[in-house]
Design goal:
mainly alpha; 69% helix; globular
Length: 289
Amino acid sequence: MSNDPASRMMYIQNLFLQVQTYMQRNPALPDVEAYLQAEAPEFRSVAYESASMELALHDFSSGVSLTTWKQLYAGSGQAHSFHMDIGLGWALAKTGRAPETVLSIPDGPSSWMVFDGMGYFFGLFKGRKTVRHQMVPDGIEGAELQGFDQGLGRRLWYIAQGDVTAVTQLMQAFPEARHPALWRGTGIACGYVGGKNDRAALLQLLSNAGKFGQQLRTGIALVAISRRVSGSMTPDIETACQVLCNRSSAEIVAFATDPSGMPVLPKGQDYANWLTQLETLFDKKENAL
């Protein structure tokens, strides 16, 4: 695979479609897990994201309350929970179902990541309204909009094909109040896709983010934590952590570990508070330099 961001994006998009095609055959859950685990670790979480969407769509059409989806989520999907939550957001956006119908599941998805998935979906399939005219779907506001814009920020990085100048120009069309979450999403996409491991380009991205640099860093940090949980750390995310966050990925992951040493990804309002605390991690490092 090329280390060019655009080529890596193409691989990710093709992988998503390939898993969709497989899932539409309605395979048994053990076969699904074996199929997903066969994908190389670097982008395996994308395979789970696509499977999550298809399982949710199947459960919705069957009138069941995410029965099959929850089985995967409680199994091997635990290591890919952020991406499974995003995939659920895709399914909700595609069907127009109210997110509240699934967000009350005990030990279930993170509302922020579900709305993230919705934001990416709208940016992809309703880009004229969502990107060109910066419109927000009815009923999405407050913390929900923060998640939605995070996903939309990821989409902006894809539209820009990883070009720093292009993504900055896209960002400038949005009201400044939406920039923090959009830059966090851009950081997530930049960190996850990889291929942008040139120090000068990363520093230019940070410079362009301006006063929202902390949110960009937080997006990078979220990728480091997510990749640690899924066992898919890469040299690219390590470089991004060092250059943009002034910390190693291990230092960032340590911030989010429980007493057993396993990373913990909070949900609900705890997620918003956790993001704020994560941003202060970079403040402390900068003050020490």
